[in-house]
Amino acid sequence: MLVIAFAGGSFGQDKKEIAAEKMAKISFNMSDQEFQRLRVTLPRPLDTPWTGPFYDSETCFDNDTVKLAAVDVLPIWIRKAVAAGEPELAAAYLWTYLKFTGDKDQKISTKAVITLYRMGDWDDIAFHRMRRWIESRFQYSYRDVHVSDPNDIRQQVLRELDFYRDSRMNNVIYDEWSKRKDNEGEDLASVDYAYWLECHDRQLPVDYWLSRLETPYAFENALKVLEIRKPEGLIERLQSRFQHLSARSLSSPDAGRAAEVASVLFRVTGEAKYRDYLMAQAQTQLLSKSFDGSLPQTLKSLAATNDKAVLDTLSNAMQNKNVMIHEAAIDALGSSKSPEAADILYESAMQEAKTRFPAHQLDALLHQNDPRSDSKYERLQQGLLSGEFGWHATSSDFAGYEFFRKHGRH
Predict the structure, then answer these.
(1) Which of 408, 256, 243, 235 is nearest to 332 (CA)?
(2) Are residues 256 and 319 in the same domain?
(3) What is the pTM of this model?
(4) Tens digits of per-residue pLDDT, 281-314?
(5) 336, 365, 399 — which closes off a domain?
(6) Strand, helix or coil at 270?
(7) In the chain, pLDDT over 90 holds for what percent of residues?
(8) How far apart are CA 143 and CA 149, in angstroms?
């Protein structure tokens, strides 16, 4: 967690220019992603008029376009004012900012609440609003600036709590799961409270997780939990589900789930027939020369067997002229714990770095979450920054990777 505190200071009309100069000199020396999650010690809000370079304490409410801009800019000013030792100026900005958390436009108010929480919150305003979203089953699609796909706002709340190691809502989340555990249905695809609880040391009944094998929603999460806990009768249940799911056509979503089950069964039992099934499925789809919807899951499940025998199939998929298949194979190798998989990613990145930035290979190496893979990532980073491989990258190209490396793998 990133936290800074404010020093003493004062804010008055005769000190505006001094305050502005001090704020202009503040540099946090961090990526945009780090800065957007930087927590500061917020001062008590003050109802004091202020004037900024774009708008003031009144005109920032002129219309929704200006409001959204203010919701983005004011947190920057607040953090800089705190760091510059101008708590009264920060307090004036904060007074204004808090009004946005109650705006009638959901896009404005939800963004303001999430950002307030990231700044450090004031009087638990953001925390209580987030709690109400969980308890009221409030459904709203929230798009974070650094995430390509939008999240259900409730799932976003879980991500925020996880990032800051905030356990204050654990019991609330458990209560919500208890109320809906027998009727979760499709909502599991939007938010999975049970999986969040398991990841935060709140084990739920094994029978519940076994029952989750019968639903298609958040299926991968159920498999992850069951593989770790290995309850009695798991293999038989998985074999039964595999027999049912594998009978479906390759175009069915069940084909991807069959691949996931086969991968778990191979890791748990070591029986080669499950690995061979995955290899056959992958080869069939690759030879069809069409990008089938279940292929990414099949390749990922194949890589996750961690077996050397599958690497030729994955390596061949990486050579496919279909860009989507090529990238799916690279992404899949991020699920492998095999040292040889890291070697393949490294060699592929070296080749790609001659003409372009090897984004997928770098991401896959970090997702392997292994010291050997991290070492290869660092070597690639060094070569790309120096231009040694051909493509000359900048430090900003690695900002997202470094953020994930630091915060996304716990």
Answers:
(1) 256
(2) yes
(3) 0.88
(4) 999 888 886 665 789 999 999 999 999 999 999 9
(5) 336
(6) coil
(7) 79
(8) 7
Closest CA to 326 of 293, 357, 299: 299
- How far apart are alpha carbons 302 and 285 in whole angstroms? 13
Cα dist from 258 to 223, 263, 312, 314, whole Å: 11, 9, 22, 18
Beta strand extents in 34-159 (DSSP E only): 39-40, 141-142, 151-152
| Distance spanning both ends of the chain, measured CA to CA | 13
Residues 320 and 296 in one domain: yes
53 burial (CB, 10 Å; 0-12 / 13-18 / 19+) is exposed
pLDDT in tens, 371-404: 999 999 999 999 999 999 999 999 999 999 999 9
What lies within 8 Å, CB to CB, of 386 at 6+ separation is: 392
Residues 283 and 303 in one domain: yes
Contact 80, 26 (CB under 8 A): yes
Same domain, 321 and 386: no
Judged by DSSP in three states, 60 sits in helix
Structural domain that includes position 294: 246-336
- The answer to whether residues 387 and 270 belong to one domain is no
Closest to 187 measured CA to CA, from 236, 114, 234, 138: 138
Q: Is residue 32 part of a domain?
A: yes
Of 123, 154, 184, which closes a domain? 123
Q: Is residue 37 in some structural domain?
A: yes
Structural domain contains residue 172: no
Closest to 405 (Cα-Cα) out of 367, 349, 360:
367
The pairing of strands 151-152 and 141-142 is antiparallel
- Does residue 163 lie in a domain region? no
**Residue in 274, 271, 323, 301 with CA at minimum distance from that of residue 314:** 301
